[in-house]
Design a protein that fits this description.
The protein is of the alpha/beta class. The protein contains nine helices and twelve strands. It has two domains: about 40-80; about 110-335, Protocatechuate 3,4-Dioxygenase, subunit A, CATH 2.60.130.10. About 30% of the residues lie in helices and about 20% in strands. The strands form three sheets. It has a six-stranded mixed β-sheet, with no helix packed on it. Strand 8 and strand 9 form a beta hairpin. The protein binds fe (ii) ion. Fe (ii) ion (FE2) binds next to loops. Its cofactor is Fe(3+).
Length: about 350
């Protein structure tokens, strides 16, 4: 009878793990502790302990620790069920599958939940009295043509009513900002951006305006109208579930850059637009809403650079706004006063 040999050093892990262990040996965790909910040592503590003992990148550790804390608190606060969580996972999976190069459902979800607007506010805090920022959105094109102040940004035949935009860029001392470039982009009178038209060959309703040395600039264009964000996917389903709509108020996007000053990306909204208070992406701020007026005098239209034949509705919309830019130093100083010590 063959003798039974006592097994020594039994194989505990497969080849893939053995290969990994050669490079990195996880530290032991206090597994003898009770991880069950209801004791002083919770699943949340266990996750945090694992990450704290292994993660070597402090900012990653800070972010993931806060994320796990909030996610676990969400599950506890709502007594989240298996079935509900499965629905969430199914929804996120669909968001991934339905995202394309032209429509990112995760960006839409971030926008719809107000997270994109919040991150923008945290990233670009503005000292009191300076123009608020808001998100760039998906239609910015870095290669817009550079044009002098006073140019027309709308090609002949662009849909919509004509508008004259008259801006001035000042610093916090009330002085005109020198050397500013103003990137402008907007939808037309049908709420459509040039890049959304199939077969687009050249820029329309957009341009990089060289402001005058006293900070003033103007352009002739088209009064923008409201338009919807994409709502044919999971993001749209969520809006409907919440009783919300996908329509953004009319607006013009601006990106201002001037030497020595903090860059500003923002948008302005005419006060007559619908949907100002129910923006699906929470980018509309009270300080960015403008009263615009109608100009009926043909002599004034001529002063603005319009030919009578271009003004088909008997009026030109006149939009004025004063932008206030903080200097780079003012923003750094402001950020220092707002700094919060990261919790690790
Ligand atoms: Fe937009």
């Amino acid at each position: 009878m063959a003798s039974v040999k006592q097994m020594t050093d039994p194989l505990l892990v497969g080849a893939a793990i053995r290969a990994q262990l050669k490079h990195e040996i996880p530290q032991d965790l206090p597994l003898e502790r009770d991880c069950r909910e209801g004791t002083s040592y919770t699943i949340t503590d266990h996750v945090h302990a694992l990450h704290k003992s292994l993660c070597k990148e402090p900012r990653t550790l800070q972010l993931i620790t806060a994320l796990v804390s909030h996610l676990h608190a969400f599950a506890r606060d709502t007594s989240l069920t298996h079935a509900e969580w499965a629905k969430v996972v199914e929804f996120l999976t669909r968001a991934g599958k339905e995202s394309t190069d032209y429509k990112n459902e995760f960006v839409l979800l971030s926008d719809i939940l107000g997270l994109s607007a919040l991150v923008d506010e945290l990233t670009h805090p503005k000292p009191l009295g300076c123009t608020d920022s808001c998100e760039e959105g998906p239609f910015y094109q870095p290669d817009a043509p550079e044009v002098p102040s006073g140019s027309s940004l709308a090609k002949i035949g662009t849909i919509g009513e004509v508008m004259f935009f008259n801006g001035v860029i000042k610093n916090t001392k009330g002085e005109g900002v020198k050397g500013a470039k103003v990137d402008v982009w907007q939808a037309d009178g049908d709420g459509i951006y040039d890049v959304q038209y199939p077969g687009r060959e050249e820029a329309n309703d957009r341009g990089k305006i060289i402001a005058e040395t006293d900070g003033t600039f103007c352009y002739r264009g088209i009064l923008p109208t409201a338009y919807p964000i994409p709502s044919d996917g999971p993001g749209g389903d969520l809006l409907r579930l919440l009783g919300r709509h996908p329509h953004r108020a009319a607006h013009i996007h601006f990106m201002l850059k001037a030497p020595g000053y903090d860059d500003l990306t923002t948008a302005l909204y005419p006060s007559h637009s619908p949907f100002l208070g129910t923006d699906p992406v929470f980018a509309t701020k009270k300080s960015l809403i403008c009263q615009i007026v109608e100009e009926h005098d043909p002599k004034r239209w001529k002063d603005m650079g319009f030919k009578d034949s271009e003004v088909k509705t008997g009026r030109v919309w006149v939009w004025k706004y004063q932008f206030v830019l903080p200097s780079v130093e003012e923003v750094q100083q402001f950020k220092r006063t707002q700094q919060v010590t990261p919790k690790l």
